[in-house]
Amino acid sequence: MPHQPLPTNNQAGILEPPPGSDSLYPEPRRLFENHPIHLRELRPLNGQSILSARQFSLAQVVELCKLAAVLEKVEITPYHPLAGKIVVTAFFEASTRTRTSFESAVLRLDGKIISIPEARITGAAKGESLADIGEMFNAYCDLVILRHTETDAPEQILGRLRVPLINAGNGTGEHPTQALADWYALLKWNNALAAPPVPGTPKLQLGILGTPGSMRAVKSFLLLALRFKDHISRVTVISEMADPFGQDLSEDLAGAGIDYAVTNDIQHHLDQLDVIYMNSIAFLGDSYKTLDARFKLNRSSPLKPGAVILHPLARKEELSTDLDDTPHNLYFSQAHGAVFIRQALLTAVLGRIDRLPNQVHTVD
Question: What's residue 3's pLDDT?
């Protein structure tokens, strides 16, 4: 069948971003128009557990983002990609955006949800092991999405789990699907990131306000940034910590050969940064802590013209609401797009990419 134009959001019945917002919502269509989705890059994800940002290749990230852009523009539910599939969202740690965006993604794909919104309603409250819970999940569902306060929780549940697992945040470990949402927002903002760099094109100065070694979302964002290293001239980490990485991240940075610096002087670097990723909340031990909270951004901050800010949310005082209605705001687009990148990932992991509408331009 010839490639047909896809409908717009309004034609598809998908909600536009919140009315009255002047925030930056890049157009998804530019990511996939004249750029077919290469299914050969996505097929290896079929049946895979998603535990770390490290497991994605650059090509997989790009193709997932292209598929997410399609899903943001087309009403996918009538095609029933996940019909007959049951997903358990097992959230042993508090969540708003991650749990609801995953559940929205499953429902938009016509899958079904078994929702566990907190640990105290599970057998874990009676001392049941995650391994035993995983054994039970095998009979109940086709995929598990897990968030947990313990960093080794994915390893524990995988001891018995035989269906795919998606890590939705594990202690101080990682948050790989948040990183996909982060880079989906950036690829919509700058489509050139989805292709090899053109010689002579300026590269991005990437700034991180936070401590990647202790903040799982920041860690996963940085790990995916290494996949885009050819588009990045320098990474500047602004942190209160002398060593904000830890050994494993330091090895990743060294292996990538990317130019990076660590500083606690925000004023000296802020006006040089094209992309600023920030966070302040970290789960350390048994409670949430606020790290690097003295690094704050507001409308009077000396931001580079055209610079954009990313934040995984929830925010506290580090990111002022007076930036919400400025072009620096990419964090609302980042949150808005999370449901579509998670739809793309679920479609690939559950082996349903062949159920995409015929008008979606794909190649093998």
Answer: 38
Q: Identify the helix (H) or strand (E) that includes residue 115.
A: strand 112-116
Is 211 within 8 Å of 235 (Cβ atoms)? no
* Greatest Cα-to-Cα distance within the chain, rounded to the nearest angstrom: 61
Instruction: Return the CATH superfamily for domain 176-335.
Output: Aspartate/ornithine carbamoyltransferase (3.40.50.1370)
Please state which CATH number belongs to domain 23-175+337-354: 3.40.50.1370
Both ends of the chain: CA-CA distance in Å? 15
Q: Which stretches of 95-194 are DSSP H helices? A: 97-108, 130-140, 153-157, 176-189
* pLDDT range class, residue 71, cuts 50, 70, 90: very high
Mean pLDDT throughout 244-271? 88
CA distances from 183 to 20, 321, 338 (A): 25, 22, 10
pLDDT for 289 beyond 90: no
Secondary structure tally for the chain: helices H, strands E? 12, 13
